[in-house]
TrEMBL record:
Protein name as catalogued: Glutamine synthetase
Alphabetical UniProt keywords: ATP-binding, Ligase, Nucleotide-binding
Organism of provenance: Byssochlamys spectabilis (strain No. 5 / NBRC 109023) (Paecilomyces variotii)
GO cellular component terms, A-Z: cytoplasm; nuclear periphery
PANTHER family to which the protein is assigned, alphabetical: GLUTAMINE SYNTHETASE (PTHR20852), GLUTAMINE SYNTHETASE 2 CYTOPLASMIC (PTHR20852:SF57)
GS beta-grasp domain ranges (all copies): 37-116
Length: 369
């Protein structure tokens, strides 16, 4: 009805709060599924986001091989042309679903084109190949995912509208009103990750207000990318229920506000063993030689963040040091003391693809075969 002011009950409830509508939906959620399983197929899209759709399976799943290949319309996601639009999604890992619970699952997929080659945005395939070739090195990765929570208007959540909060200082690991924002969402995401079996190793509030970090790892090889992508999916999905947007932009607010990174902690078996410091030092030389190849896949807009200020190194110069948070790579003080352990590559931006980061690190340290 044109010009009608009548709005439905559902719209009414949503207008009050997005999660209020979910409370109404809750009474349907424990209805019996009659043995069927809901499988949420998730894939990475053309702009570093995630997409997903659900299919019903006839019984609970115990192995990834039992999950059928599926497809989607790639012309609707910028992943294929309209005249050849089918993109195939192949399950590579599955996780308990913290939203639907029970036997329902989240299914992480690789994207493949109809000619049998990996989709342009499928960086997992090549990374997995490299990791398999160099499996004897036993690479471990632990990534620190920083991100910013935004209101629906795109301004950081909790910031004065059209204005700024007080200067940075009280917010990092902050506790108390005015020092920390969105703890409810962060806690919900943390629990959702644990339920799903993600190796989330911690969380902390960041230097810029409304910015947080979670860490995933250490995980071996390709598993790090799988788990981090699933943790990103869970974050978007949880925040959706609170009407809050997640930004992985490396410099969401220009000026004297910290950017967001994806610090990547790395070790191999020989780095973790006695005398490992020598192996770490030789890794520094290899990384220095390929600095710009790494920067090329360490995220878009990273030049706004890697300025040499705000605890970053400069984008056009490789440097490393013990306990140095202003270099490309930091060797933790404890590692230098023990003479073995791991190093932290501080260059990757928060929006980088963890498959590309971990893939190129293996390639650089082991040679590209
Ligand atoms: P920071 O002091 O840089 O904020 P965090 O505590 O946030 O450090 O993250 C450090 C990460 O290092 C942890 O999440 C962990 O996964 C990872 N890590 C620890 N030991 C190793 C290791 N031997 N190899 C690879 N990653 C490791
Ligand atoms: Mn950290
Ligand atoms: Mn951090
Ligand atoms: Mn760090």
């Amino acid at each position: 009805m044109a010009g009608s002011t009548v709005i439905s009950n559902a719209e009414n409830v949503r207008a009050q709060h997005p999660s209020a509508a979910l409370c109404c939906a809750a009474k349907y959620m424990d209805l019996d599924q009659r043995g069927k399983v809901m499988a949420e197929y998730i894939w990475i899209d053309a702009v570093g986001g995630v997409r997903s759709k659900t299919r019903t399976l006839s019984k609970p799943v115990t192995s990834v091989d039992e999950l059928p290949e599926w497809n989607f319309d790639g012309s609707s996601t910028g992943q294929a042309p309209g005249d050849n639009s089918d993109v195939y999604i192949r399950p590579v890992a599955f996780f308990p679903d913290p939203f639907r619970k029970g036997d329902n699952i989240l299914v992480l997929c690789e994207t493949w084109d109809s000619d049998g080659t990996p989709n342009k945005f499928n960086h997992r395939h090549e990374a997995a190949r490299l990791m398999e070739t160099h499996a004897s090195e036993e690479f471990w990765f632990g990534l620190e995912q920083e991100y910013t929570l935004l209101d629906t208007d795109g301004w950081p959540y909790g910031w004065p509208k059209g204005g700024f909060p007080g200067a940075q200082g009280p917010y990092y690991c902050g506790v108390g009103t005015g020092k920390v924002y969105c703890r409810d969402i962060v806690e919900a995401h943390y629990k959702a990750c644990l339920y799903a079996g993600i190796a989330i190793s911690g969380i902390n509030a960041e230097v810029m207000p409304a910015q947080w970090e979670f860490q995933v790892g250490p995980c071996q090889g390709i598993e790090l990318g799988d788990q981090l992508w699933m943790a990103r999916f869970l974050l978007h999905r949880v925040a959706e229920e609170f009407g809050v947007r997640i930004s992985f932009h490396p410099k969401p607010i220009p000026g004297d506000w910290n950017g967001a990174g994806l610090h990547s902690n790395v070790s191999t078996k020989s780095m973790r063993e006695e005398g490992g410091m020598k192996v770490i030092e030789s890794a520094m030389k290899k990384l220095e030689a390929r600095h710009f190849e790494h920067i090329a896949v360490y995220g878009e807009g990273n030049e706004e963040r890697l300025t040499g200020r705000h605890e970053t190194g400069s984008i056009d110069k490789f440097s490393y040091g013990v306990a140095d948070r202003g270099g490309s790579i930091r060797i933790p003080r404890q590692v230098a003391k023990d003479g073995k352990g791991y190093f932290e590559d501080r260059s990757p931006a928060s929006n980088a693809d963890p498959y590309q980061i971990t893939g190129i690190i293996v390639e650089t340290l082991c040679g590209g075969v």
